[in-house]
């Protein structure tokens, strides 16, 4: 895809920022406090979270997490209450503002905002994601923010991208989406008709689906690879 670009949409988690404490670190604390051996990890938590939240329902992530961890507990032979206690500890331990920019992210935002309309399409509820943006000091940098799983179905469904572009008044063929996930960001952008920019961050395997543009860091994004 070629042609002029009017808008750049960003993913948030592991694209613009990352937690200072990993999910596995916090889970380790929670399992230790409850006094049980770990029976799931952060990868399973993230991969299966969508099973416990009706797309577009506006469910609170804290309630969804309790439902997920309670199910993981029963699957592992524990009482549901054990999983729910782990979820509550996780919520207490997770400071949503304790995030840091990925290398080059702030520079890329500053550079692109001078030329393009800037929006965000992120999977995650507003309660959680707004705290991250506040922690980074960029809560006012986006003209539109669409939360997959709350305002629309989760990415890679094309609907959250379409909502963002409709609010910006920009056609899909004149927009790009930047994200680190092939499964949700690249696939979703293509489904909605946008050009994709994949943050590879050291991954060397042949990407599938193949993004339109690949950057190794967000420093490269300031050079506008679609230009």
From TrEMBL:
<protein>
    <submittedName>
        <fullName>HAD family hydrolase</fullName>
        <ecNumber>3.1.3.-</ecNumber>
    </submittedName>
</protein>
<dbReference type="InterPro" id="IPR036412">
    <property type="entry name" value="HAD-like_sf"/>
</dbReference>
<comment type="similarity">
    <text>Belongs to the HAD-like hydrolase superfamily.</text>
</comment>
<dbReference type="GO" id="GO:0016787">
    <property type="term" value="F:hydrolase activity"/>
</dbReference>
<keyword id="KW-0479">Metal-binding</keyword>
<dbReference type="GO" id="GO:0044281">
    <property type="term" value="P:small molecule metabolic process"/>
</dbReference>
<keyword id="KW-0460">Magnesium</keyword>
<dbReference type="InterPro" id="IPR006439">
    <property type="entry name" value="HAD-SF_hydro_IA"/>
</dbReference>
<dbReference type="InterPro" id="IPR051400">
    <property type="entry name" value="HAD-like_hydrolase"/>
</dbReference>
<keyword id="KW-0378">Hydrolase</keyword>
<feature type="compositionally biased region" description="Basic and acidic residues">
    <location>
        <begin position="209"/>
        <end position="227"/>
    </location>
</feature>
<dbReference type="Pfam" id="PF00702">
    <property type="entry name" value="Hydrolase"/>
</dbReference>
<dbReference type="GO" id="GO:0046872">
    <property type="term" value="F:metal ion binding"/>
</dbReference>
<feature type="region of interest" description="Disordered">
    <location>
        <begin position="202"/>
        <end position="227"/>
    </location>
</feature>
<dbReference type="InterPro" id="IPR023214">
    <property type="entry name" value="HAD_sf"/>
</dbReference>
């Amino acid at each position: 895809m070629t042609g002029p670009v009017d808008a750049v949409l960003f993913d948030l988690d592991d694209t613009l920022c990352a937690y200072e404490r990993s999910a596995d670190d916090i889970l380790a604390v929670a399992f230790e406090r409850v006094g049980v051996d770990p029976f799931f990890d952060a990868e399973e938590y993230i991969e299966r979270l969508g099973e416990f939240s009706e797309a577009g329902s506006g469910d609170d992530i804290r309630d969804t997490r309790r439902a997920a961890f309670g199910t993981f507990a029963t699957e592992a032979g524990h009482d549901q209450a054990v999983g729910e206690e782990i979820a509550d500890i996780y919520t207490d331990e997770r400071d949503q503002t304790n995030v840091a920019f990925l290398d080059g992210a702030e520079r890329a935002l500053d550079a692109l905002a001078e030329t393009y309309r800037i929006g965000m399409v992120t999977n995650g509820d507003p309660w959680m994601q707004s705290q991250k943006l506040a922690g980074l000091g960029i809560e006012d940098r986006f003209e539109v923010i669409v939360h997959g799983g709350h305002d629309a179905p989760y990415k890679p469904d094309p609907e959250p991208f379409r909502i963002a572009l409709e609010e910006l008044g920009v056609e899909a063929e004149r927009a790009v989406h930047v994200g680190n996930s092939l499964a949700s960001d690249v696939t979703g952008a293509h489904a909605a008709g946008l050009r994709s920019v994949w943050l590879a961050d050291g991954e060397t395997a042949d990407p599938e689906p193949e993004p339109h543009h690949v950057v190794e860091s967000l420093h490269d994004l300031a050079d506008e690879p679609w230009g």
